[in-house]
Amino acid sequence: MPGPGRPRTGAKPKSIRKTLSRIMGYIFRQKTRFILIILFVFIGSCANVAGTYFIKPLINGCIVPLIGKPVTAQALLPFLKMILLMGGIYLIGVLATFLYTQLMIKVANGTLNAVRTDLFNRLQDLPISYFDTHTHGELMSRFTSDVDTLREAISMGVTQLLSSAITVVGTFVIMLVLSPILTVLIVLMLVVMMLIIKKIGGNSAAYFKKQQKAIGAANGYIEELIEGQKVVKVFSHEDEVKKEFGVLNNNLRQAATNANFYANVLMPIMGNLTYVNYAMTATAGAALVITGRMDIGSIASFLQYTRTFSQPITQISQQFNVILAALAGAERIFEVIDAEPETDEGYVTLVNAKTDADGSLTETSERTGLWAWKHPHGDGTTTYTQLNGDVRFNDVTFSYDDKKTVLHDVSLYAKPGQEIAFVGSTGAGKTTITNLINRFYDVNEGKITYDGINIKKIKKDDLRRSLAMVLQDTHLFTGTVRENIRYGKLDATDEEVIAAAKLANADYFIRHLPQGYDTMLTGDGSNLSQGQRQLLAIARAAVANPPVLILDEATSSIDTRTEALIEKGMDKLMNGRTVFVIAHRLSTVHNADAIMVLENGEIIERGSHGDLIQEHGKYYQLYTGQFELD
Amino acid sequence: MIKQLAPFARKYWWAMVIAPVTILCEVLIEIRIPVLMAAIVDKGIPSRDISYVTRTGGIMVMMALFSLLMGTVSARFSSVASMGFGSEIRAGLFRKVQEYSFSNVDKFSTASLVTRLTTDVSNVQMAFMMLIRIAVRAPIMLVGATVMAYYINSRLVTIFLVAIPVLALMLFTIGITTFPKFQAMLRKYDAMNASVQENLISIRVVKAFVRSAHEKKKFKNANDDLMAASIKAERILQLNMPVMLLTMYSCIVAIMWFGGNMIIVGGMKTGELIGFISYVTQILIQLMLLSMVFIQVIISRASASRIVEVLNEKIDITDDGAKEETKVRDGSVRFEDVSFRYNRDAQDNILKHINLNIQSGETIGIIGATGSAKSTLVQLIPRLYDVTEGRVLVGGRDVRDYKIKELRDAVSMVLQKNVLFSGTIKENLKWGNENATDDQITEACKAAQAHDFVMSFPDGYDTDLGQGGVNVSGGQKQRLCIARALLKNPKILILDDSTSAVDTATDAKIRAYFRENRKDITTIVIAQRITSVCDSDRIVVMNEGEISAVGTHEELLQTSEIYREVYESQQKGVAD
């Protein structure tokens, strides 16, 4: 909700012109509407200015000459005609205002919708590394506070700026016609007003910045402490925390009081200066009338104009902070939209294939269950390689930040259907290996091949389609259980979904949920136990049915007894697939065809469980470490 | 609702008085100005009395300047009052939340509590400011200007008396019809935010399953829904402006016609007519502002009720039953026929008739499947929740006899989902004991096997942890949390699955330290790994809220089938 109390983040935009023209670009997607808006704003403002002008001829031409004369219908006719004309013009003004306010609703909302869409779509295309360096909260605030301030500025600001500009110019012209001398007086006053606005505006900006900082500090503290509320309780730290918050809260109060004072004071200052203006105009005007250089109708119009003249200026100055904040917000939004998306130079694709009579593979549009890599070559030929799940690392070196090497000359191979396990302490590089296979990150040196093809040549989407991951932190989506499993394969039939659930041993508990497969999951599946969520994640991977499976601490949150129960399901899932397993508990990896022990980014031991135990190395230590206290 | 929020305004009552009083002065002066102007036109001009004109003009200028001064003062004090009010509410909410028990916190989600303390407070604060500024100003202006207009011409004022109620009714109707539509829009807005949040949290899943197209489609639906709802709400709200203009213009036209006629027959003067028109503008602008306030207040009503919900929440764990000066004597723990359910309305108990006696200084391991209520059991010891039936005794006395602070100082608990706060490592550790010396800190960290990695950071114990302690790995965080709990020098230490991310060797070292150096502390360890508990004095096997077996590792291997299964599931390959 664009409540005015929403904290405005950030102060000054860096490049006003560029950001503005970009916002205009979005607005111009509804060109016809926007042009109509300009037209109606123009009509509305002109009607306002013109209607007020009628006060002069009405007084001078229709009222004053009739004073003291007998009132006849004949004599009043021109007066009535004039009044009706004035009313007509005002009516056009109201109509135009109605039309542009209604049109603006569509333009403003459409624009915001487009901005949000671009923002979200870009987020989907950004590389994982972007999310490593930007917090969820930070990205969320692009959608919330930044878009909100933009909404305010667009829905109020655009039409207000336009109509104000037109009104000011129109009024100025008519005032000049009415009385150049009085106009000079008003313009002088206006300059004074502008100077005051500028001064207050400058102070206000500085205080708003301070307020922003104070809001950030207080809100940050609130978020952190409420997140950690249970720890506060356990340590009986309530009083200390209250005291610390008291300080931040008081700082915020002071900063907010100052900032809001400057925002508030504008209205009385401008309003009363307008009265000063009004008083001076009345006095000077009267003097002019007395000396015969002006008529009474002109004063009447003029006095009304002094208000129509200064009101838009006050309005604009009040909107100024909002507009600045909106531009700064828009700039941050565009920064995300402009971020470099995940590049993909891959050209090898995954296609359905069938075997011809001569045993060679050809592409087909049918769903054969047989998949092949379609590999177009430079010489115009295309080869098809069957998708098997053979993954090899050749001397792979990798660093997240080009400073600290996370993986060092790692070489390994996984033949189709093999289970490869990674063991090692936190930070040894286990998860990194799997992140390289699905190209969340790209290797710095060396190469990774998939069925003999360098994975850099494979289109990322197709590569990832051929892999399924079950991650340590299970994330489920709002929706039914069925929809969550189907996430692995969007066109899966109900039978396929249930089969996958059965494979993961999830079918039993799902059937015991209140609505079975149609039970709604909310808040990342918080209505399920950790183990149940993990089972759903496994089912989700199962329905995708890929040749390669990556299990990153997939069972770490499940107790070992439950794990033993689902192990059968896991075995079924792993059967016939190449599997990469990362595990904390050594008991879960002993079946692997090969176990890699990682330390500081290097494979220091490799072999089967039996081999490694025999070797009496690190693995042996780790393994027996569990029992050294017996 | 107003009754509950009113006390927060008390501290700044003087500002709340000064602000409207100065506004009153400002308005009273302001509404005199058009009358003076009329005098200039109607008296000064016909009599060609320049000195009268300048004198009256001078008075007008002085009045405007004085009104300006009043306006500035009112701006200052309304800002003091409203920001003070907001700040008091924020502090009140924060204090209240600090008193919340675990079950109070569970009832609201953390995210919703944060929104209530931030966005909702600023909404209410803003509405309050508009109320004391505009809701005071507009009615005074309305009445004052009408009176002044009446004073100029009692017949012409009929136009106001028709126009004002008509406009007020229209604006009111707009406000009323808009409100539910705005609420609908806010719900769509929440839904869209939720979908973005979910997407961001799960971005790896989205990418791993190549579902960005699917996600984009999902977002498009939420986004379009929001747009439709928002257009629906604004359609009516935006009638404000044309309706307002229509009324104002109608008034001006009517005044010109009827007023003009009066002038012609000699019942009114030209200057008075101009003054009259001036009042129309004044009154109607105020009415429009009032309608804006009205909408803002209606919208902030939702926020206010969310705030009041937090304030009204009954705190279920208090010091009320405590006896002064009751000290925790030793680290013994006793569960006497304890049953528990989180929600009293729930049908089934999570814990069922638990009886358990733990000696002071004993080491107890607790093992059981996820959902077997292990965490729930230990959370009853420091009274994070209160039992539903039966009682829990610490040091031989019911936990409800102790002051909460006394009890929790004696019972140190490392939570399963633990947090470090922003600040340095040392600052975080000092949560355990504010006056801890560097030696004590080092010792606790050595015990928790944290000293070595802390020293490996360039700044050692002064290393700054970002919000949520993001700079350290999961295992390191757990070890720091253990050290923090140790610094409290407790009689009872509870580790709720607190070493799950610590590797087995380090885990073993931590336990060895406890066994050798801290025999006096009663230690209760919940773990998944059997190795983490098998050397305990006794092991409790939990199953579906009941104690299924108690005994030493060897005994349980003989007697408990569950324990044996767990053991075997973790032993595969060893016998090979």
From TrEMBL, chain A:
Membrane association type: Multi-pass membrane protein
Family matches, as Pfam families: ABC_membrane (PF00664), ABC_tran (PF00005)
InterPro entries to which the protein is assigned, alphabetical: AAA+_ATPase, ABC1_TM_dom, ABC1_TM_sf, ABC_transporter-like_ATP-bd, ABC_transporter-like_CS, P-loop_NTPase, Type_1_exporter
Domain ABC transporter, first and last residues per copy: 391-625
Regions crossing the membrane: 34-55, 75-100, 165-197
CDD domains in the record: ABC_6TM_Tm288_like, ABCC_Glucan_exporter_like
Alphabetic keyword roster: ATP-binding, Membrane, Nucleotide-binding, Transmembrane, Transmembrane helix
Limits of the ABC transmembrane type-1 domain: 35-325
Naturally occurring in which organism (per UniProt): Caproiciproducens galactitolivorans
Subcellular location per the Swiss-Prot or TrEMBL entry: Cell membrane
Name this protein carries in UniProt: ABC transporter ATP-binding protein
TrEMBL record, chain B:
Domain of life: Bacteria
Transmembrane segment boundaries: 12-40, 52-73, 134-152, 158-179, 243-264, 276-299
Cell compartment(s), UniProt: Cell membrane
Keywords: ATP-binding, Membrane, Nucleotide-binding, Transmembrane, Transmembrane helix
Domain ABC transporter: 333-569
Principal location class: membrane
Membrane topology: Multi-pass membrane protein
Protein name: ABC transporter ATP-binding protein
Organism of derivation: Caproiciproducens galactitolivorans
Lineage of producing organism: Bacteria, Bacillati, Bacillota, Clostridia, Eubacteriales
